[in-house]
Each structure stands twice: as structure tokens, then as C-alpha cells.
Amino acid sequence: MAIDAALPTQPSDAPDLAGLREQLTGHVWQPGEDRYAELATPWNVAVRTSPLAVAEVADADDVARAVRWAGRSGVPVTVQSTGHGTGWDLAGTLLVHTGRLDECTVHAEGWARVGAGVRWHQVLDAAAPHGLAPLCGSAPHVGVVGYTTGGGIGPAARSFGAASDRVRAFDVVTGDGELRRATATQEPDLFWGLRGGKGTLGVVTAIEFDLVLQPEIYAGALFVDGEHADAVVRRWLAWSLDLPMAASTSLAILNLPPLPSVPEPLAGRCTVAVRFVWTGDPDDGERTFRPMREVAPALIDAVQTIPYAAIGTVHADPVDPMPVRDVAALLGDLPDAAADALLEVAGPGSGSPLVIAELRRLGGALAAEPAVPSALGHRDATYALYAVGIAAPPVGEAVAERQERLVDALRPWATGGAMPTFVVSGSAPFLPWDEATRTRLDELARRYDPAGALRTGLV
Ligand SMILES: Cc1cc2nc3c(=O)[nH]c(=O)nc-3n(C[C@H](O)[C@H](O)[C@H](O)COP(=O)(O)OP(=O)(O)OC[C@H]3O[C@@H](n4cnc5c(N)ncnc54)[C@H](O)[C@@H]3O)c2cc1C
Questions:
Q1: I need a labelling partner for 224 at 20 to 30 A (CA). Which of 29, 55, 202, 384 fits?
Q2: Among 302, 245, 240, CA closest to 279
């Protein structure tokens, strides 16, 4: 797929969806039919998607048939699993839905093979009895494949690097409709581009990746009242700069709504969360985290030894679909002036409507290039900014305006990039790839998808 190609216009003849139906073991759903709305609706319900049809594929051969049909019919192809990363309307596309590709095999020797419909929590549960752990993100209910093809920066990323750095192999249908296997030695260009290039080169049907031996972590979140935000933000910025690789951390200024699902001390007020994941000895973790515990009294202190399989509790991201607008950016070192900027736009008393304004400390294992190079770049960034608000009245407009202000306020420290997993549409202010990476992805797209059948929306 040419990343910068414009969406083609609809072919003059109506595409032969009945012909596609006949070819697939799975189902084809059109607007108004049973599962169309369910499968086409992404997790972020603010994104209204309207694909021409949804191919609910049953296996890898179905994917190949669907992609070939789309190529012949002049219909662009997109792919979705959970829809956590879908940010454009998919109009006129054939949406390949991978939910039924549910193979999930964990090998006790330390690796896993999973289908493109599998979510991280399934791998966490299957790996835990072996003391093994996958490099999932903060929200274990997102899909393994979409996350990993975008790099995948999880709560333990400073210890173990990006999820894409641990991939052994992909089974993938490229835009020309061929089912291929990509490894470090087989189709190495494809292997390079699928790790960090998101869905630009093909529809992955299965993925194989290494697990780490990590039965437990010293991890969780410490919450303090927003009145201490100034002290906590400044201490965290200084403390987080100098952490060993065993420590990963993020800081979030939260304005959580007064809902029954939100713990009472955090509901309806501004709070600050310091998240911490320590992969070494828990006593060392406790000592390392102590400076953050000493800044201010805790509303909730949930940093403790937990099974790795409970890593989703560190961020406790929302599971149910909701209308959100998010923005992401990568930042360099943040001096005191950056703390001033963050607090002025997103801190307590700023009137910020953002539910969350978060900084993740990067570096550690993430900073190192993997042994087999990949399309995932931006490894020199020190922090990642991620800010989310509700994209619906009465706050929707204020959220968009505040996100813009936040990005402007922190722009002096922005690297100009963003991690691909956090970029959901081409209208994002920062780019997932530098010029050289994007050019190489484009060249590969032309080789593997000469007709430009695949679409990602990352224009
Ligand atoms: C609450 C929340 C928390 C998150 N936390 C993190 C985090 O900690 N770290 C992080 O790095 N990201 C995080 N993300 C981003 C998230 O991981 C990405 O949006 C990811 O794409 C979700 O994967 P999915 O398969 O569920 O996505 P989908 O929405 O189903 O797909 C999104 C995109 O992924 C690609 N894709 C999906 N399936 C395939 C396939 N089979 N073959 C090829 N490409 C495919 C395509 O480009 C597709 O457009 C978070 C997102 C949310 C909403």
C-alpha cells in the first residue's frame, strides 16, 4: 500500500459481494445485516465507521481470498481486531475483521503463537502457569497484532523493550493477496516493516513472539490529591530521569468522572497517579519507589508485589467502548519550564476537561535497536505524552481545544514523532515514522501491494 495514496473512488460497477460471500468460509456482512454494526464499530465509538462490507474471516485462507477479491474489484482493504486503534471512517472499504482468528498457543520454552483476533489478556492467562509473560500494553483487552505491529510500548517497556522487538515471525497476507511467512531470514524486508509499520504492508493472520520469564512484578499506582500536583510532577520528572532498567514509570494527571466504576477517593476531582513497574527484587523496587511515596500523602497506594498477569491493574484503563479523542507526542528531556507548561494547561485549577494527561518515561531497553532492525523508530525520546478526553457534548469541543493547547505548550520539547501504536489517523499532529522509514515502507508497499489495495488511514 502506498501510505500517501489517496483513497480510490468507488468503482463504477457495484462490487460483487455475493461472489465474495461464496468464496469465504467466514461471513460477509453488509450495512443493515446482523453483525455489520457490531464488527464495524470500533472501541472508540466517536469514530463512525462505514465500510462497504465486513469480512468476518474464518482463517488465513479467507484473508487471502478477501484481499484478492478486493484487489480484483478495486475495493480498498482495511483490517480491524478490537478497533482500539481505528481512527478514520473506513468508508468504501472492505473491512477484514480478524476476531475469529483465535489460536493462542503458549510454549513452555518461552514463546507464543497467536492468531490476529487474540487479545493480550488471553496470552497473559495462558503464559502465567509457566511463569512467563508477554509484553502487553497498559490495556490487556487490546489486540496483540495491532499493538505489536505498531511497536507496542507497555508498562514494563524500560525493562523489556518494545513488543515488536520480541517478534519471531508473522504469517501475513500482503496486498497482492499472497499468504507469506516473514522472519529475520525469510522475507526480511517484510519482517522489518511489519515491526513498527502497523498494517501498511499486509494483513497479519498470526504472530509468533518471545515471552519473558517474569511471574511477578512489584507494581501498581500511587494516587495523590491534585493539590500536590506541582510537587509530584517536579519530583517525578527529576526521579524518573535516573532510574535503572528494572523500573518503568508513568505519571498521569487525572480528572476521573464520578461514576460507580471509579474508586471514591478519585471520583469527580483532580488527582495525580504515579505508576511504577519494577521487574527486579521487590525490596529494591520498594527502595527505588520510596522518593515518590515521600512527596505527598497517598489517597490510594496500590504499589505492591502482584502477579505479572495482573499488569492491567497498573493503569486500570477503561474496558468498555467509549467516545474519546486522544493525542500523542514524543518528548525529549523535560526541564522545570516543561513542568510549568504541563501544570498550567492540564494541572489542577487549569479547568482542563482532559480525563487523563499522561507522561510515560521511555529509555532503558526501549532505547536500544533490536538485533534485527525494524521500522520502529523514535527510540531516543525520553518521554511519551498521551492525553485523552471525552469526544462528546458537553465537553467534546473543549477537549479538542485543550489537547491543542497542551501540544502547543509542550512543543518546545517535542521530538516531532509519535509512537505508531498511539497514532490512529493521518491528522495526528506528530508522525509515526521519519522520512527515511516512511520512504522504505512506501517502497515495500509498492513491491508487496502493487495495486495499492491496503489502507490504514495513516495518510
Ligand atoms: C485504552 C487504551 C490503552 C492503550 N495502551 C497502549 C499502551 O500501553 N501501549 C501502546 O503501545 N499502545 C497502547 N494503546 C494503543 C493500542 O494498543 C493500539 O491502538 C493498537 O492498534 C490496538 O490493537 P488492535 O489490534 O486492538 O487495534 P485495531 O483497532 O483492531 O487495529 C488498529 C490498527 O492496527 C493495525 N492492525 C490491526 N490488526 C492488524 C492485522 N491483523 N494485520 C496488520 N495490521 C493490523 C491496523 O493498522 C489497524 O488499523 C492503547 C489504546 C487504548 C484505547
A1: 384
A2: 245
- Per mean pLDDT, which range of 161-170, 205-214, 413-422 is the poorest? 413-422
Q: How far apart are CA 331 and CA 328, in angstroms?
A: 10
Alpha carbon of 147 to ligand 1 centroid (Å)? 4
Pocket of ligand 1 (CB under 6 A): 42-43, 79-86, 98, 116, 137-139, 142-143, 145-147, 149-150, 152-154, 198-199, 203-204, 317, 419, 421-422, 456
Q: Output the nine-digit C-alpha cell for 221.
A: 499506582
Nearest to 198 by CA among 85, 57, 62, 77: 85
Amino acid code (one letter) for 178 = E
Distance of CA 402 to the CA centre of its chain: 22
Mutation choice for ligand 1 from 249, 386, 421, 456, CB with most ligand atoms inside 8 A: 421
Long-range contacts of 99-108 (CB under 8 A, 24+ apart): 99/39, 99/56, 100/26, 100/56, 100/57, 100/58, 100/59, 101/57, 101/59, 101/60, 101/205, 101/206, 103/206, 106/130, 106/132, 106/211, 108/132
- Going by alpha carbons, the residue nearest to atom 43 of ligand 1 is 199
Tens-place pLDDT, residues 190-204: 999 999 999 889 999
Residue 6 pLDDT more than 70? Answer: no
Q: Which atom of ligand 1 is nearest to the CA of 162?
A: 11
Instruction: Tell me which of 43, 59, 147, 207 to substitute to probe ligand 1's pocket, judged by most ligand atoms within 8 Å of the beta carbon.
Output: 147
SS3 439: helix
Neighbouring residues of 110: CB distance < 8 A, sequence distance ≥ 6: 132, 210, 211, 212, 213
Residue bearing the CA closest to ligand 1, atom 46: 199
What does pLDDT average to over the chain? Answer: 94
Q: What pLDDT, in 10s, does the model give residues 137-162?
A: 999 999 999 999 999 999 999 999 99
Cα dihedral angle (45, 47, 53, 56), rounded to 10 degrees?
A: -50
For the CA of 142, the nearest atom of ligand 1: 26
* Per-residue pLDDT tens over the stretch 81-115: 988 887 778 999 999 999 999 999 999 999 999 99
Q: In the prediction, which pLDDT does 5 show? A: 41
Q: How does DSSP classify residue 414?
A: B
**Ligand 1: distance of its center to the CA of 340 in Å?**
32
